[in-house]
Design brief:
By secondary structure, the protein is an alpha/beta fold. The protein is built from seven helices and twelve strands. The strands form three sheets. Strands 1, 4, 5, 6, 7, 10, 11 and 12 form an eight-stranded mixed sheet that branches. A two-stranded antiparallel sheet has the order 2-3. The longest helix has 13 residues. The radius of gyration is 17 Å and the shape is globular. The protein binds cytidine-5'-triphosphate (CTP) and magnesium ion.
Amino acid sequence: MVVAAGSGTRLGAAQPKAFVSLAGRPLLQHAVRRVLDSGVVGCVVAVVPTDLVQQADELLGPDVIVVPGGADRSASVRCGLAALPAAVDTVLVHDAARCLAPPDLVRRVVDALNQHPAVVPGLPLADTVKQVDDEGAVVRTPDRARLRLVQTPQGFARDLLERAHRSAAGSDAPPASLATDDAALVELLGERVQVVPGDPRALKVTTPDDLAHAGWLLGLGA
Ligand code: CTP
Ligand code: MG
């Protein structure tokens, strides 16, 4: 599932972020092509803004199922889950905004799903992280060696992901940070989530600087 129904407020482009062009192709098309190129994905569902369903359908062709998304990322993932064919038992959830996530990374996550019901790619951090309180005072400094920057695609046994989303949708307002990360919902169920090595090319295009960075990576062959 490629979630692409966001508006891209921070990018500030004229159209929703997944439809912004990078070297002549929308971010969504870059993302879907790399997922399909992995050779390990049997079916792709793209979740897009309601008014762009037809445009996405024409862009992505008959092999990709296109459905309208929801008000936040979690709602869009639930729209995608509802559109999955019955035979699917393993799901990757991927951000269209991570448009250059390479086929290798998709294969790495799928490989790990043979051993684990929930898998996320993660990168080590270069910077030190501080946890602060409301006044900005440092509460603690987590050991950087134990931290990871988490990316997508994130992989799950379908029933586990559906259970995680059902349980999150039923509870009153989980913390905002959880709405942006499917694995966090699985963690809330007390289930184990395995981290595999991420890839710098899976950066999330959020700001205009990120789009420039993605263009540079593409120029290098990403
Ligand atoms: N997303 C989605 N449905 C939403 C919100 C987000 O499918 N209602 C998707 C985005 O399209 C994106 C991914 O979730 O591929 C990650 O979200 P983010 O980078 O935050 O994208 P936007 O929400 O579009 O950007 P912004 O937060 O700057 O508005
Ligand atoms: Mg957003």
